[in-house]
Design a protein that fits this description.
With about 325 residues, the chain is an alpha/beta fold. About 30% of the residues lie in helices and about 15% in strands. It has one domain. It binds 2-acetamido-2-deoxy-beta-D-glucopyranose (3 copies). One 2-acetamido-2-deoxy-beta-D-glucopyranose binds next to loops. Keywords: Signal.
């Protein structure tokens, strides 16, 4: 009897912890459907690449910080950790096989036709002192994109002396520091340069006080995913986009490992620079959030090596299709 009631109590406590708080249903907005883009850092950088490649019909550009080519890990954690991150060989990757994989997945209807990539705009960042995802990996990503789109559409920043971090000009640790929240102040505004490359030189700069905290909303994430994610995601809806009076741009920003809500709450959304720029430039920014899992994903990373399933890289991947559903809801597609 006692054992039974303990079980019931445990179940109730678990239910309360998990379900008592439900965030608001994600809304739809007036989005310019030709101005949708993505970016991300580290596991989120790898994820931004695979999401961009898989949904190139919908997207017009991508920003990548410390990520790498499509299917680099080939479904293997060990490959992810070695050749795709801590690559000790200074030589560039043989990226032709990842390009072949893109064409093969497209032929099998797993991703959009890569001809849709041809006019896309790409921004790539790698710090010279990055010891987690080595600069040679990002230089390989530059070559990978060079096979799929016009090389003149790629802008790179590979000379800032930063460790593995999202670099800003007004917030974070010392440029050479490695650690939480993985945002470093190197007097270089990465988010601004991503938006400028993708949306053009008309993008206005922002500063520490540009983001309005109440415009960063929580939304219920679980309805979009078949596998476990954080229950809550964030969306920054600029003042100018709330009434639908103007068609706004839409951007999805993928956090890195140990950068989700469970680790640093709203820090990535509010202090990486995206939200201030969003406010000033009428860009709606979604920050989807990963849930860490002790066995399969202990550091709360986006899936770019296959911990969800073997389709993780294409449109059938649960995280991929879930984020696409989020995009479709926000943009009313
Ligand atoms: C904005 O437009 C979307 C899509 O049409 C609609 O669902 C939403 O209710 C509108 N919001 C407002 C505040 O009018
Ligand atoms: C995407 O590529 C396909 C195949 O080349 C083409 O038919 C389609 O028009 C393209 N879509 C866009 C939005 O460019
Ligand atoms: C910061 O940017 C806002 C616009 O977002 C502007 O009104 C304000 O003057 C700027 N502040 C500083 C200190 O530059």
């Amino acid at each position: 009897m006692a054992a039974v009631s303990n079980t019931i109590i445990l179940v109730l406590v678990f239910a309360l912890l998990n379900g008592a708080y439900a965030a608001a249903r994600l809304g739809s907005y007036n989005v310019d459907k030709s101005k949708i883009s993505v970016s991300g850092i580290s596991s989120g950088g790898y994820f931004a690449v695979q999401f961009h490649i898989a949904y190139s019909k919908t997207l017009m550009g991508a920003g990548v910080v410390a990520g790498g080519p499509y299917y680099c890990a080939e479904g293997q954690l060990n490959t992810a950790l070695t050749s795709c991150m801590n690559r000790l060989l200074p030589s560039l990757m043989d990226v032709a096989k990842y390009v072949d994989k893109v064409h093969e997945d497209a032929k099998n209807g797993k991703i959009d036709d890569p001809t849709n990539l041809s006019n896309d705009l790409i921004y790539l960042y790698s710090g010279t002192k990055d010891t987690v995802v080595r600069p040679v990996v990002m230089k390989s990503l530059e070559r990978f994109y060079g096979y799929l789109l016009n090389k003149n559409n790629i802008v790179t920043m590979f000379t800032t002396p930063s460790e593995h971090a999202f670099v800003t000009d007004d917030y974070g640790n010392l440029c050479s520091y490695l650690g939480s929240p993985f945002i470093n102040n190197c007097r270089y505004p990465t988010a601004y340069n991503i938006f400028k490359q993708i949306y053009g030189s008309g993008i206005l700069p922002a500063n520490k006080s540009s983001a309005i905290e109440k415009n960063l909303l929580e939304f219920e994430q679980s309805e979009f995913f078949s596998t476990q994610m954080d229950n809550i995601g964030y969306i920054y809806v600029p003042t100018g986009c709330q009434s639908n009076a103007t068609a706004c741009r839409l951007h999805i920003a993928f956090h890195g490992c140990k950068q989700g809500r469970e680790y640093i709450d709203t820090t990535f959304a509010l202090h990486s620079g995206y939200s201030g720029l969003a406010e000033v430039n009428n860009i709606i920014v979604v920050f989807p959030q990963i849930h860490k899992s002790i066995l399969s994903n202990p550091n709360g990373c986006w899936d770019w090596w296959g911990y969800t399933n073997s389709d993780y890289v294409n449109q059938d991947g649960p995280q991929m299709s879930g984020v696409k559903k989020i995009l479709d809801r926000v943009a009313n597609i």
